[in-house]
Amino acid sequence: MTDISCNFPAGTILGYPRIGARRELKRAVEAHWSGAIDEAELEATAADLRRATRERLAELGLGRSDSSIPETFSYYDQVLDAAAAVGALPERFAERRDADGSIGLAAYFTAARGAGFDAPLEMTKWFDTNYHYLVPEIGPETAFAPSSDRFARHVAEARADGFTVRPVIVGPVTLLALAKATDAAPRGYRPLDRLADLLPVYATLLGELRAAGADWVQLDEPALVSESLPATPAELADAAAHAYAVLGSVPDRPAILVAAPYAQLAPEAWTALAAAPVEALAIDLTRGAVPSTVPGLETKTLVGGVVDGRNIWRGDLAGAWSTLAQLRGLGAASVAAGTSTSLQHVPHDVADEPALDRRLVSWLAFADQKVGQVTALARGLVEGRSAIEEDIAAAAAALEDRRSAPGVRDGAVRARTAALVAADFDRGDYQTRRAVQDDALALPILPTTTIGSFPQTPDIRRARAQHARGQLSADEYEEFLRLEIRAVIGLQEELDIDVLVHGEPERNDMVQYFAENLDGFAVTANGWVQSYGSRATRPSILWGDVSRPAPITVGWSAFAQSLTDRPVKGMLTGPVTILAWSFVRDDQPLSETANQVALSLRDEITDLEAAGIRIIQVDEPALRELLPLKCAAQPAYLNWSVRSFRLATAGAADMTQLHTHLCYSEFDVVIDAIAGLDADVTSIEAARSRGEVIGDIARSDFAHGIGPGVYDIHSPRVPSVAEIVDLLERTADELPLHQVWVNPDCGLKTRDYPETVAALRNLVEATRRVRDRPTVIA
User: 196, 179, 318: which is closest to 246 by C-alpha?
Assistant: First the structure.
């Protein structure tokens, strides 16, 4: 091991966007999945993207040979990458391995997406972000072994190109803490119990990385900041102490940087890591604070995460500098400037947004601009504050301009939120509403529906692009959308679905569509951020007070309802999700911003009711996502998030059936909050987890309508009738059938029509079979 206790760079980032500024990796991966390119072509495209990323980061000021450039490439997910490297894939994927037993792309992508009868790994949110990771399945039978050399190959590739990069890998404690037990595991078993068995494989991996040319390795341990995992902070800290005592003792290894992003590092973890034989610690100082004292840091580098990796605001460089000065007071061997998290949560480059208002652009920093902030702070650490006074002054001027700009504060909006009273958040008794709705809607037992969107076909995307370029007039585009809606309504009637949707062909994204129609928002052209796998979104920018200048969805919903006698759901995105999936202003409490959005949605619901819409869905898939990682902060969050939803919906009449939808979350954590939303019907993800959540719902005495998903739309698999029947029967064993709805896990936007139609036919047929059972009829 090289003695590098004092040669960590003065500035670094914890990660960088990996899908490409123009989503090059997405296109290549999906082309490979479709058979359009082979594995060699995919690997070549990925290598070009990695080279372009390294060159760009060097151009922005990170060093070519000092390990300040992180290697964070992934074909799908960083947790899956780590699991594949140590052989932790379930036995059902064994036949997909390469001939030598290693985990190549065939097994890797099957674990991510499923194929045939091989169900994919479960997917859920990465801490409190909108990124989805794949949940490893680890049991006593899991045989850990080196199974992929991809990390080492990428280091060697960079070396050949003249770069010394820092590979980034999910650390062993976090990998196990985020895993779920396999079905074969005994009751009470935890994957974390396998730490001693896993560490030798990580030790081997460290040796391979050193041999490939890595001077440093970054092991990400965000589990050490969370209080929302099955293991307690003390247990996680003990695990970290053991893990890094072992890994720190590995001979001829790279120096180790342990990164703990997303919140304040737990005190027990501070103690454990300070005592561990590792060379550097990276901590989040945008969502955490500098502790008063930590013994044992004299030989370590501290990387202060003072540049926010999760938002797009330019930030306060003077404040960041002051925080770094506090960090120096802990007595570490050296201090470096860094980002609070990986920059995978922000777009590439604000300079790539020529259509954005120039004043707004001056307030923003995307990934490339944040690299610039880090390198400026690093220069200050080396040369003194005087060297970066111009940078600090420019950031301060942008902050001041933002505070005083028109639209940031709107007197009418603030007067309306200030006038709210308790009655504005209360819709009344659920059982009373249910009786009125049952009589008005007359739906069958186990009513079938979908979540909202139907496939966004190439024709839809092409027409939207042509309209944006002026090649399709407004009238022509509207007629195209009307034809799409007619087709979707007709298809659902032919499939015999009970409650219909209009398919949302007019919407490019469930949040951006509303952002484009609400004051206080801006939208980007190229601001792509990875959501999961090959999927990316363009989060909108919520920069000012929010209001609704005109109805948004009413025309399309009313048109769809005019085509059928069956109820068609009006489709809205809830206030918490609009916040979670946007880059939100950071100059006021989220609760205040959420209420502004909620009032706009409340007005939309009123207009939908006036247009004759009898069922309205207000989606809140991000409710669990924003739950703070620290227990003490969770009650306040749940209070304001639930209240904002109720503010949006409480004005609806009793006969209007209000639905909501939540997906890919640990529902047992927020089941009381879901009940508190007081939606008449809640649809949730359940298929990929094979109905695990149903028992949690039953034990909670949840009394409202519930639709556990029976079709995993994040996989190309078409569930069989028998598979759906099995899920419905498991639901029937736990819940009264008068509560239960039948629906997919999520919207169908990302699927194609052949698999969508096949899956929905199976869903309807499975429902019919369960309805026809004598026990159900009785």
Answer: 196
- Specify which of 180-194, 669-683, 700-714 reaches the highest per-range mean pLDDT: 180-194
Residue indicated by tokens 């920069």: 543
CA distance 306 to 149: 33
Cβ-Cβ contacts under 8 Å for 394 (sequence gap 6 or more): none
Of the chain, the percentage scoring pLDDT greater than 70 comes to 97
The model's pLDDT over 405-442, given as tens digits with 9 standing for 90+, comes to 999 999 999 999 999 999 999 999 999 999 999 999 99
Q: Give the distance from CA 540 to its chain's centroid.
A: 15
335: part of which helix (H) or strand (E)? strand 334-339
Cα–Cα distance measured from residue 591 to residue 52, given in angstroms and rounded to the nearest whole number:
41
Among the listed residues 108, 84, 110, the one whose alpha carbon sits nearest the alpha carbon of residue 170: 84
Mind listing the pLDDT tens digit for each residue in 76-126? 999 999 999 999 999 999 999 999 999 999 999 999 999 888 889 999 889
**Would you place residue 643 in the very low, low, confident or very high pLDDT band (cuts 50, 70, 90)?**
very high
The two three-digit tokens of residue 610, written as one number: 């006036």
Q: Tokens 């529902």 label which residue?
A: 667
Q: Measured in Å, how far apart are the chain's first and last C-alpha atoms? A: 73
Output phi, psi for 705, to 5 deg. Answer: -65, 145
The CA–CA distances, whole Å, from 718 to 90, 561, 766 equal: 21, 29, 13
pLDDT in tens, 476-485: 999 999 999 9
Rounded to two decimals, the pTM is 0.92
Tell me the per-residue pLDDT of 377-387, one tens digit each, with 9 for 90 and over. 999 999 999 99
Query: 360 pLDDT exceeds 60?
Result: yes
Q: How far apart are CA 459 and CA 452, in angstroms?
A: 19
Distance of alpha carbon 113 from alpha carbon 32, whole angstroms? 13
Does 722 have pLDDT greater than 80?
yes
Compute the mean pLDDT over every residue in the chain, rounded to the nearest whole number.
Answer: 94
- Compute the distance between CA of residue 483 and CA of residue 492 in angstroms, rounded to an integer: 14
User: What's the angle, vertex CA 241, arms to CA 237 and CA 244, rounded to 5?
Assistant: 130
The DSSP bridge partners found for residue 169 are: 219
Look up residue 366 and give its amino acid: F
- 261, 340, 275: which is closest to 12 by C-alpha? 340
DSSP state of 180: B
User: In this model, does residue 670 exceed pLDDT 90?
Assistant: no
What's the one-letter identity of residue 508? N
Amino acid at 214: A
pLDDT of 3 > 70? The answer is no
665 touches 686 (CB < 8 A): no
Q: Which two tokens stand for residue 60?
A: 């922005």
DSSP per-residue string spanning 255-272: EEEEEE-SSPPPHHHHHH
Cα–Cα nearest to 269, from 231, 244, 237: 237
Three-class secondary structure assignment of 515-569: HCCCEEEECCCCCCEEEECCEEECCEEEEEEEECCCCCCHHHHHHHHCCCCCCEE
Mean pLDDT of 652-679: 84
Q: Which residues are catalytic?
A: 714
Closest CA to 319 of 285, 268, 346: 285
Grouping H, G, I as helix, E, B as strand and the rest as coil, residue 3 is coil
d(CA 155, CA 503): 45
The first and second tokens of residue 207, run together, are: 């040796």
Phi-psi region of 503 (alpha: psi -120 to 50; beta: other; left: phi over 0): left
Which of these, 640, 638, 513, 519, lies nearest to 581 by C-alpha position? Answer: 513
Calpha distance 408→554 (Å, rounded): 28
Residue 512 and residue 538: Cα distance in Å, rounded?
Answer: 8
The whole-angstrom separation of Cα 24 and Cα 595 is 38
Structure confidence at residue 669 (pLDDT): 67
